[in-house]
Amino acid sequence: MIRERVGKKTSILGVMYPRSSGLWFACGRTKSLEYGKRVHAHISKRKLDRDLILGNNLISMYVKCGSISRARQVFNTMLERDVVSWTAMIAGVAKQRDVKGAFEAFQQMQQEGLKPNVITFMSILNACACPAALEKGRHIHSLIVETGADSDVSVLNALISMYSRCNSIVDARQIFNGMCKRNVVSWNAMMAGYITQGNEVSARQVFDRMHQRDVFSWTTLISVYWKCGSKEDACQVFNQMPVRNVVSWTAMISGSAQQGYAEDALDLFQQMQQEGVKPNKVTFISVLNACASLSALEEGKKLHDLIVKAGLQPDVSVGNALISMYSKCGSLDEASKVFHRMAHRDVVSWNAMISGNAHHGHCHEALDLFEQMQLEGVRPDKVTFIAVLQACSHAGFIDLGRHYFCSMIQDYGIVQTGEHYGTMVDLVGRAGHLDEAEEILNKKPFQPGALELGALLSACRVHGAVEIAERAADSAFKLEPEKSGIYVMLANIYAAAGRWDGARNVRLLMEERGVKKEPGRSWIEVKNKVHSFVSEDQTHQQMEEIYAELARLTRQMKEAGYVPDTRFILHDVDPWQKEWVLCRHSERLAIAYGLISTPPGTPIRIFKNLRVCGDCHTATKFISKIVGREIVARDVSRFHHFKNGVCSCSDYW
């Protein structure tokens, strides 16, 4: 229980803590929100929650745990507030990217006669670090000069960062050039500003001018190169580093995973371990994301074991990454175990679990989780509603989807984004309400993007709506003429309708514009190694055995009643040629390799970068029954669990 304060210490739960530090910061560091709430409750019982120093520490603890609403409750009940109280609240609101709220708090603090300190200025500058807040940032800059805070190098560094993020690199450079004294953060902030603007030459010039380059500087350059999509430059800097620590390794792993080089990320992680560098929380999260991208379940399980040994599983962000990894690797049961074992769950945890259930076709469970989330007091965000709408779409819950779409703004004040509109178009379009799908886009308050138009085209492909598809494709071509997906979908729609001239014209248009079709690629993990296949692949060392297995399966499938659906072939060629191509699609090659490389009866998990072909979907149902195995296939839209000749999607996909 709480005992009395002694000197500058307070006894909480039977332990003595300094009033100005101690437990609050421990709760904040580990994000132990539940424990922090218990401590707060004990403090309130002893009527100590209005004490200035204790109140400030409570605010800081709640801010670090991400609970701004509770921080604000403490703040509002304080009888006395100082600059530390206000700065803690401003910092918390700034972390939520609430520019207006942070600025209002900053102004109110001044109205109460309190002068901002260096930390206050740095906190409010962080809130202003976006193009829309540039003028507010300029106003703060003028106050900094008036108060003499521009003599502090940390404040000047924050100004450089703010102007860079506001796309005002000239102002950032002016501050940098005027600094009497610079530290390594100053150089890194200027370098990052240039690369964020795409000016890699100037960034490299800044780097070359640095008199002292520590590991942090090299790592910053690696990170910004990755953000600009420059893999070669990032690798070059990494290889030139005289010393590499966990942060630099993590920057390379994270950049590789985020930019689509997931296999490279796994290789880097192995190299890092071989060099004896101990991974940290961010490293694990990055590698888990790479495993999720590749559906590398076995690698993910090994990482989970390492995370447990490192004592990191209680961390919320690590738990969230584990849920996402297991879900995307096709193991929803393991994802659920992680979720239910978490002592604290935030909105990201709930979103990951709702989305996982939706993508696996467990739509009732996804919507039940959504209701439970609200009962536990977790407020949904825009990502939550994307997952909820996807659950409705996969299950064909049209009326419920309409309800949630309207509820977003009416009940929660969440403005719909293009992804929400795209999911609604998919929901009603897939159900055959193509006129309504087109109307949704026409009534949209902002111009439809390629995502929404692609959803409409996908629905047109299912229902053979050529005219609507042509209108949608024309609009999409104007927005993203270089993206191959729209061309391919339109060509598929023409081909399925037997309009070969139309399909041929689309291919000619692609050639004229230099648009290359993204090749279908499928992956499968066998014995901790990820194997990749493309259609009609000849590169795998066991290709002869794979094609022999495919031939055997095709014979058995036909005996069981399988008839190839050649509508999914874009070229007007002989039927036997169409059938030959279908049988060599990448997902079938991956499945065949899995069958010859894994023990009988074990599940097979594959991942494809495009939607599963309709004929391959039918074929996989036959294969699952013939071989007596569950086959889990993940495509860009959802998971398909094939078992005993039936798919979990009930052929509604």
Automatic annotation (TrEMBL):
UniProt keyword Repeat, yes or no: yes
Domain DYW: 561-653
PPR repeat windows: 82-116, 183-217, 245-279, 280-314, 315-345, 346-380
Keyword Cytoplasm: no
One Pfam family cited in the UniProt record for this chain: PPR_2
Key words, A-Z: Repeat
Entry-linked InterPro entries: DYW_dom, E_motif, PPR_At4g14850-like_plant, PPR_rpt, TPR-like_helical_dom_sf
NCBIfam families the record matches: PPR
Name assigned to this protein: DYW domain-containing protein
Protein source organism: Sphagnum troendelagicum
